[in-house]
Amino acid sequence: MNEDRLTANVVKKLLNESAGRVSPDIQARLNLAIAKSVQVHAEKHGARGKSKTPITGPINDFLQHISEWFNRPALSIAVSALFIAGAALGVAQFGLENYDARISETADLDAAILSDDLPPDAYLDNGFINYATELQKNNAIPAEDGLEQWMNSLPADFTTSI
Predict the structure, then answer these.
(1) What is the distance between the alpha carbons of residues 31 and 22, in angstroms, rounded to a whole number?
(2) Which pLDDT belongs to residue 148?
(3) What CA–CA distances, in Å, run from 23 to 17, 20, 31, 36, 121?
(4) SS3 103
(5) Distance between alpha carbon 35 and the CA centroid of its chain, in Å?
(6) Interhelix angle for 73-115 vs 58-70, to 10°?
């Protein structure tokens, strides 16, 4: 590593000495070549973000103004905060609606249990729940015109309040 550094220093010293002995016409050509390379580099890197056929006119000015306005960090943070707040409100509303739905389902079940002739322990019995579910599947409630006929077709041990 030290040898590389020493070699680099020697080469640098020799180049500096030889640069001092360059004739003026060669120095002018070198300066012109350096200026051209810097110009080409600037054009290449300056045109990287721009389109090859620039749009001119009021539309371009308007789009540049809008683009500059939207590239502000404060605006980006404000828009992000707005989206986060909207998402949080959506989640909260969804939770509240589901909570209200669960409360109304529970209230409906409580009202059915209280208005029914069955004791609440019957609803805790898995056998009774299976029996009632199968009975409902087998005896679907018909339209209003056939309700009397359906009520008469129910088994005698099936009690319900309608």
Answers:
(1) 12
(2) 66
(3) 13, 9, 12, 20, 112
(4) helix
(5) 49
(6) 60
DSSP assignment letter at 144? G
Confidence of residue 142 (pLDDT cuts 50, 70, 90): low
Q: What is the largest CA-CA distance in the chain?
A: 123
- Name the strand (E) or helix (H) holding 90: helix 73-115
Taking the CA atoms of residue 110, residue 113, residue 119 and residue 123 in that order, the dihedral angle to the nearest 10 degrees is -80
Q: Report the C-alpha gap between 152 and 143 in whole angstroms.
A: 14
Q: Cα separation of 72 and 77, whole Å?
A: 9
Task: Say what the pLDDT of residue 158 is.
Answer: 60
- Locate 112 and state its tokens: 């059915």
Tokens, residue 114 = 């209280």
pTM above 0.85, yes or no: no
For residues 162 and 159, what is the distance between their CA atoms, to the nearest angstrom? 10
The secondary structure of 3-49 as a DSSP string is HHHHHHHHHHHHHHHHHHT--HHHHHHHHHHHHHHHHHHHHHHHSSS
